[in-house]
Amino acid sequence: MHDESTSVLGENGPYRLTEAAVATLHTPEKPLHVAEVAELLDVDPTTIYRAIKAGDLKALRIGRGRGTIRIPVEAFAEYQAGLYAAAVEDVAA
Predict the structure, then answer these.
(1) Are 4 and 19 in contact (CB under 8 A)?
(2) Is residue 79 part of a domain?
(3) Model confidence over 61-89: pLDDT tens digits?
(4) Among positive and negative, which fits the CA dihedral 75, 56, 80, 82?
(5) For residue 14, what is the DSSP state?
(6) Residue 60 and residue 69 in contact, taking contact as beta carbons nearer than 8 Å
(7) In Å, how far from its chain's centre is CA 75?
(8) Is the pLDDT of residue 7 over 60?
(9) Share of the chain above pLDDT 70, in %
(10) Residue 74's domain is classified under what CATH number?
């Protein structure tokens, strides 16, 4: 049985992944940048960083050190739903 594989260039040189492994790496939607989320909500990026730090918005840190922050689409949807619910609650009060 021959398993299809894909060559990937890693930090320590090329290595091979099976098609099954490649499929598990694929996510249906690309995570969002902090600036994209800020633009979608019409707020300053600092507001988004504060929400991440407070634990209100789930995010991924990619890389070493400070790294790069990405927000999964699902996490953004949950955060946005929470903002909407809080706004409706404030109006109802």
Answers:
(1) yes
(2) yes
(3) 888 888 899 999 999 999 999 998 888 87
(4) positive
(5) E
(6) yes
(7) 7
(8) no
(9) 70
(10) 1.10.1660.10
